[in-house]
Amino acid sequence: MFQQVNVILLGIDLILIAFIHKELNSLPPLHKTLSTIMRLNMSRMGCYVILAFLLVAGPLVAITVTIMLTKKQVFSEVKSPLASYAIIYNILLLSYLIRVFKQLFAFYTKLALSDTFYFYIRVAKYNNSLLSYLVQYDMTSSLVMHAAVFVGLFLLVELAVIRRLSTTNAGAWSYVKRNWPAILLVVATLVGYGMVIYHIERGVEIHEISLGTSVSMVFSRFYEALLINALLLYIYAVVITNDL
Q1: Which of 15, 53, 90, 180 could join 2 in a cystine, given CB atoms 3.0 to 4.6 angstroms apart?
Q2: What does the UniProt keyword field contain (predicted)?
Q3: Strand stretches in the chain, DSSP E
Q4: Domain residue spans in the chain?
């Protein structure tokens, strides 16, 4: 089911990209945007490697290890972990596709409704100011926040699922101590994401945007990520509990 939804949503995203590809090409290169905002000398390849780690490798490692550490408490066979992997990876992809759709649709709507915004985007590559980089900054920061929220919520959902499936009556503190490796891993991952987000936002603040505006934008991204991921992970909890 999730694979079919992913294919449909990917098609919609690609259609949106086709409509606005000229405007997207008018934006400065992504590595230049991040280098300017974060005051780093970042190459194109280095930029893509960092984003691949933050958006793909980081969440997948945290999710995989969390499943390995929690599912073995209830199931000795591999059915449960494999079922969880198959579902959660598709849900992670779906959450990204929804987030990208939201970003692209908002960008497309602004272009359609505002001639000023359209002109500003078309000349962004030649306008060496912070405003030239805000669209890519917002998209990148939103996806990093999205990945962090997904990892944190997944740990909470996975612990709740395992506690429900467990036949023991261990207390809450005993349950936390039993799962401390998974909790420690996710907390360390979230601290790393928090440092990255802080560094990005701090760079934007230095480049003219006030702390209040930056905090407001971070909260907005967090709320949107929380809403999308909470809904999808609730579906994951229902599906995985009924299947096992």
Answers
A1: 90
A2: Membrane, Transmembrane, Transmembrane helix
A3: none
A4: 2-243
CB–CB of 72/160 below 8 Å? Answer: no
Exposed/middle/buried for residue 60 (C-beta within 10 Å: 0-12, 13-18, 19+): middle
Tell me: the pLDDT tens digits for 5-39? 999 999 999 999 999 998 888 888 888 888 877 77
The string of DSSP codes covering 165-205 is H------HHHHHHHTHHHHHHHHHHHHHHHHHHHHHHHHHH
Provide the 10 A C-beta neighbour count for residue 86.
Answer: 13
Q: In one letter, which amino acid is 149? A: V
Whether residue 151 contacts residue 189, with contact meaning beta carbons closer than 8 Å, is answered with yes
Closest CA to 240 of 67, 55, 83, 71: 83
- Residues 83-135 pLDDT 10s: 778 889 999 999 999 999 999 999 999 888 888 888 888 887 777 666 677 88
Q: Which residue has the tokens 């987030």?
A: 99
**CA nearest 90: which of 236, 200, 241, 210?**
236
The contacts of residue 183 (CB under 8 Å, 6+ apart) are 155, 159, 176
**How much is the CA Rg of the chain, to the nearest whole Å?**
20
Residue 89, CA distances (Å) to 129, 154, 186 in order:
38, 11, 17
- The 10 Å Cβ neighbour count of residue 1 is 9
